[in-house]
Amino acid sequence: MAASLTASAHIDRFLAEATTEGTDDGNSLRKDQLYGLYISWCLLHNAAPHPVAEFWAALKAHRVKPGRSRLRMAGPAATDYILASYPALN
Fold this sequence. Notes:
Blueprint: H1 2-18, E1 19-21, H2 31-44, H3 52-61, E2 71-73, H4 75-85
Antiparallel strand pairs: 1-2
């Protein structure tokens, strides 16, 4: 049980620091973007990423549905993800 609380706190922190809620215009983060943002956030915080299945289970518990969540990227993790995704920007 303690591990699930830790995972929940980890995901809570990720969502609070790396995402913001936008409008319902159909441009929310897709699955690949959300996971990439999470990896960037983990790297910036020297945190070990949770296994993929655990990550998606935690987001499901938070009622986050990729592509329909209204979530947008925010903060330093967003910058890191964008720069890593588009090497021509470096």
